[in-house]
Amino acid sequence: MSLEDLYQEIILDHYKKPRHPGRLEGDHVEVRHYNPVCGDELTLGLRLEGERVADIAVRGAGCSISQASASVMSEQVIGRSVPEALKVAEGFRRLMHSEGEPDEDLLGDGIAFAGVARYPVRVKCALLGWMAFKDALVLKGRTAMATEAQVLDAMMQVEDPELGVNVVDLGLIYGVDFEEEGHKVRLDMTLTTAACPLTDMIEGATNSVLVGLDGIQEVEINWIWSPPWTPDRMSEDGRVALRSMGFAI
User: Fold this and answer.
1) Per CATH, which fold does 148-244 belong to?
2) Between vectors from CA 213 to CA 65 and to CA 71, what angle results, nearest 5°?
């Protein structure tokens, strides 16, 4: 059996026999998440005992990726401390965005979803349960939603395809706003030239680094051409990068 076949078998097993299904009784919080692109939905219940994830229950419907991933999530975080569980969640988010080498010991069966990163439309499906878990922790006051500083830090991974410099140091981000209680982030952005045909590439890269970041489920980019971009908006690091390429900045 190939590794890919093994991963598919793991995903199918979690889909057909989800771990920790149903609904919790007693003291707990519940959150509901919905993915309009694929029609996935789930309701997650969370119970904490101090700083330990005592129990989770998930009920939902949707594609095999979303439901199996939620099953894996419940298996991987129950019994862990909140910081440890968040570390697992961050490891899975990084797996979905192909950031660094995955930690198989940390992810457990979550490693089976490694191939999903090749299909951006499925990444949101795989992250649905994990984002619900982090939202439940927010309700319990154990973590916070993403901040503007975190968004800008993540956006330093997104480069202008023509210049090879990240969009933050280029000064292409005019503003960051949060909507829907932090689940949606709207970026006011521009490009170095208004006629640049690369907006789709930047939008794809932006979704890759932001969706799944501390509760962010949706990203919207509002392209702004007035006022136009000027080199004055660049950081010193951006200037140094362009000078090294021969630009007179």
Assistant:
1) GMP Synthetase; Chain A, domain 3 (3.30.300)
2) 30
As given in the structure block, the two tokens for residue 240 are: 């140094």
- What pLDDT was estimated at residue 56? 96
**Parts of the chain with a pLDDT under 70:** 1, 142-144
Over residues 2-36, the pLDDT tens digits come to 778 888 999 999 999 999 999 998 888 999 988 87
Q: What is the CA radius of gyration of the chain?
A: 20
What pLDDT score does 168 carry? 95
| CA nearest neighbour of 40 among 70, 77, 73 | 70
- Report d(CA 162, CA 154) in Å as an integer: 20
Four-way CATH pick for 3-139: 3.40.50.10170, 3.40.630.30, 3.20.20.70, 3.90.1010.10: 3.90.1010.10
Residue whose C-alpha is closest to residue 126's, from 141, 115, 142, 138: 115
**How many degrees, rounded to 5, is the angle at CA 156 between CA 184 and CA 233?**
95
Nearest-angstrom CA–CA distance, 224 and 232: 17
